[in-house]
Amino acid sequence: MWLLARLLPQYGFTLSGSALWSCLALLAGFTVLLSAKSALFRHNTTARPDRKSLQNARTLVTTGIYRYTRNPVYVSMALMLLAWMIFLENWLSISGIIIFILFIDKYQILAEEEALERTFGEAYLQYKKRVRRWI
């Protein structure tokens, strides 16, 4: 993102108060992340997204931030990338956010969902119907 912004400054934009907006997006990202981690901690379950850890998970967390998104940690990362895009003030930086979302969706989230479905069965399928993957 930074390299694109520096190499192609003609795609820059000016946003009044960009530092403030960037800080707000970053703060939102950290808030979502802390909310997700604390919900997992309260339920004494893993925050590790690898298959083995997910298969050993004892609790399906569906409360707190997990009522609104099945992947709050990834939502928080996307918000932090948004903060970086705003800070860079370059439209091409949005490509970093899009690439992140597409990559995580295909190569991480699908595998996590399969592991959670094997571990929690019908409870996870019902949760999937109620709560969106992102937001």
UniProtKB/TrEMBL annotation:
Places the protein is found = Endomembrane system
Molecular functions per Gene Ontology: methyltransferase activity
One GO cellular component term: endomembrane system
Which UniProt keywords are present, listed alphabetically?
Answer: Membrane, Methyltransferase, Transferase, Transmembrane, Transmembrane helix
Family annotation (Pfam families): PEMT (PF04191)
Quote the InterPro entries the UniProt record gives.
Answer: Phopholipid_MeTrfase
**GO terms classed as biological process:** methylation
Primary location class: membrane
**Where exactly are the transmembrane stretches of this chain?**
12-34, 77-104
> What is the membrane topology here?
Multi-pass membrane protein
Output the PANTHER family linked to this UniProt entry: PROTEIN-S ISOPRENYLCYSTEINE O-METHYLTRANSFERASE, SLR1182 PROTEIN
- What protein am I looking at? Protein-S-isoprenylcysteine O-methyltransferase Ste14
